[in-house]
């Protein structure tokens, strides 16, 4: 299966970002991709106003998503992205959606909020309280994660034990000391320790690192982007997963039960 990563710098106005997303969808179809992953929080960003994205939140039946759904009616491409969705009292969810054939086929509210490195996502964002679903793309089970989720190996392991062969991760990985190293190490670790593919797609621009990449089940990056806008395509091969899991049966050899999501009150 061919997958695509659409890396770009999110703009201030949602209509510009909708146009970019639709253009990347069109280009991914032209490249023969079955799955396109876009960055995190693609609705709106103002690097001089950190609350702008939250203030620009739209419901899932709002104009931003409706334009993407209309574009997706033209083909069978599955597109994954996140955006801020209102949750009342001026607060929002960071919601991942998967769209295909004009419909939202899956949604997930980000579990792990980025309260780290002197940032506090939870100031305006409510955490989700459910594990993300798996989706099927051309017979391959895909597990859904968002950005900071990458730092929690229990989540990736649970999704793989539930059947995922490919983990996808829209992200807006903030620049900082050693942060590019963290990104590459963590994406590689989640792939290697679970003997699965990981497609991690980061926003680029002045605030975030970009560096989107696809890592295979032996921890090998098969394609990667730099710090500028790009559309990457690569192959996900189910037989590669089978061969690696035969040679490196860590899932079969493990001695721990599947991780469970802790119950947490808002």
From TrEMBL:
Stretch forming the signal peptide: none
Any Pfam family hit: CN_hydrolase
Record domain CN hydrolase: where: 1-238
CDD domains named in the record: nitrilase_3 (cd07581)
Molecular function in Gene Ontology: hydrolase activity
Entry keyword set: Hydrolase
InterPro entries registered for this protein in UniProt: C-N_Hydrolase, C-N_Hydrolase_sf, De_GSH_amidase, UPF0012_CS
The keyword ATP-binding is assigned to this record: no
SUPFAM superfamilies linked to this entry: Carbon-nitrogen hydrolase
Coiled-coil regions, chain positions: none
Family the UniProt entry places it in: Belongs to the carbon-nitrogen hydrolase superfamily. NIT1/NIT2 family.
Protein name: Hydrolase
Organism: Pantoea coffeiphila
């Amino acid at each position: 299966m061919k997958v695509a990563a659409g890396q770009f710098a999110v703009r201030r106005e949602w209509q510009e970002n909708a146009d970019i997303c639709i253009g990347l969808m069109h280009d991914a179809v032209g490249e023969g991709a079955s799955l396109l992953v876009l960055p995190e929080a693609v609705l709106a960003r103002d690097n001089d106003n950190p609350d702008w994205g939250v203030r620009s939140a739209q419901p899932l039946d709002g104009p931003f998503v409706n334009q993407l759904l209309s574009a997706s009616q033209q083909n069978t491409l599955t597109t994954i992205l996140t955006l801020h969705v209102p949750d009342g009292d001026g607060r929002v969810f960071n919601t991942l959606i998967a769209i295909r054939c004009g419909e939202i086929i899956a949604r997930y509210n980000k579990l792990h909020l980025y309260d780290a490195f002197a940032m506090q996502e939870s100031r305006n964002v409510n955490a989700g309280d459910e594990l993300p679903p798996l989706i099927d793309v051309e017979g391959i089970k895909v597990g859904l994660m968002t950005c900071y989720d990458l730092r929690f190996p229990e989540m990736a392991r649970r999704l793989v034990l539930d059947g995922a062969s490919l983990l996808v991760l829209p992200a807006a990985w903030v620049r900082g000391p050693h942060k590019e190293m963290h990104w590459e190490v963590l994406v590689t670790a989640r792939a290697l320790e679970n003997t699965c593919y990981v497609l991690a797609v980061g926003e680029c621009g002045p605030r975030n690192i970009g560096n989107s990449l696809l890592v295979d089940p032996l921890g090998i990056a098969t394609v990667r982007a730099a710090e500028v806008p790009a559309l990457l395509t690569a192959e996900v091969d189910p037989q590669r997963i089978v061969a690696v899991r035969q040679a490196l049966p860590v899932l079969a050899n493990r001695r721990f039960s599947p991780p469970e999501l802790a119950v947490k009150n808002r």
